[in-house]
Amino acid sequence: MASGSRNPLVVGRVIGDVLDNFENSIPLRVTYGNREVNNGCELKPSQVANQPRASVGGNDMRNFYTLVLVDPDSPSPSNPTFREYLHWLVTDIPATTGVSFGNEVVGYERPRPTSGIHRFVFVLFRQQCRQRVYAPGWRQNFNTREFAELYNLGLPVAAVFFNCQRESGSGGRTFR
């Protein structure tokens, strides 16, 4: 990319709030039903209720990857005291396959933003080797950078994010 300012991860403040600057080097495709996640796209909570399909590119089947999904805007973008909220963690994903071939360390929790527009960020790391990764004790205040450092993952090889906000019910009330 010629200009960093045109990088949607920079424009969306994913680089800065969640990640350090890096270059996408491995294809990562994430879909909810028939909707592909593209940087900055809008998805409704009802569209992301079920675990997405995520597939990892690359050409060396000896490589393994770790995928995390975090919300840096929890509980609200104006007061992100739970930054980052961990929604999903899968390790040992073989190259050229989907996350279903990996090891789900933290199960998928569907996004349920209560106020404001939240960014949900998928981050892919190349692992140095297969390794045991432990689930954090809680989902709030997860730190993608510290996680990558703890498990010696280095910089991400891919990332993509979508925006999501509460769906308004009739008359402003939410019916459950």
CATH class: Alpha Beta
Give helix % range: under 10%
Helix-and-strand structural type: mainly beta
Might you state the CATH topology name? Phosphatidylethanolamine-binding Protein
User: How many β strands by DSSP?
Assistant: 9
- The CATH H-level superfamily is PEBP-like
What is the arithmetic mean of pLDDT? 91
Protein name: Protein FLOWERING LOCUS T isoform X1
InterPro entries: PEBP, PEBP-like_sf, PEBP_euk, Phosphatidylethanolamine-bd_CS
Organism: Cicer arietinum (Chickpea)
Family: Belongs to the phosphatidylethanolamine-binding protein family.
Quick structural gist:
Pfam families: PBP. The chain starts with 7 loop residues before the first helix and ends in a 12-residue tail after the last strand. It has one domain (8-165): Phosphatidylethanolamine-binding Protein, CATH 3.90.280.10.
